[in-house]
Amino acid sequence: SFCLKGEGLDGSYPAVIDYTPYLKFTQSSDSISSDEEELRTLGSSGSEGSTPENIGPPFITDENSWYNKCKRVEQKYRLALEQKGYLEELVRLRENQLSESVSQNKLLLQRIEDMDLAHKMEKEQLEYIIVELQDQL
């Protein structure tokens, strides 16, 4: 759907599709469990009570889970990178729109000043004509 507003229907403005409502982060149950697992591993490896039995076999046998974690992190990274690119493009577009608006604002202010000056000159001329007509009477 779209909405037509204003007078600018010449197509000089770029078409913009706003995807910001879809850029929300949702955390899946897999990522929650993997986060909890990482916290447990980090907490147990940093403690002084860790024994040599805790080191070794679990790290060697879990290569597949590490590979899956790596893939998930890579997918998250790619998603974040795509969102970053989209947001940067959106910022560039908004900056261009802002600069165009600023230039249009300056033009309109100049036009207002010119119209004000013309109005004052016309008023002075009319006052001069009124004084001449009063003198003739």
TrEMBL record:
Polar residues bias: start-end ranges: 42-53
InterPro entries noted in UniProt: RUNDC3A_B
Region named Disordered: 29-60
Highest taxon listed in the record's lineage: Eukaryota
PANTHER family reported in the protein's UniProt record: RUN DOMAIN-CONTAINING 3 PROTEIN RUNDC3, RUN DOMAIN-CONTAINING PROTEIN 3B
Name of this protein: RUN3B protein
Organism of this sequence: Mohoua ochrocephala
UniProt gene name: Rundc3b
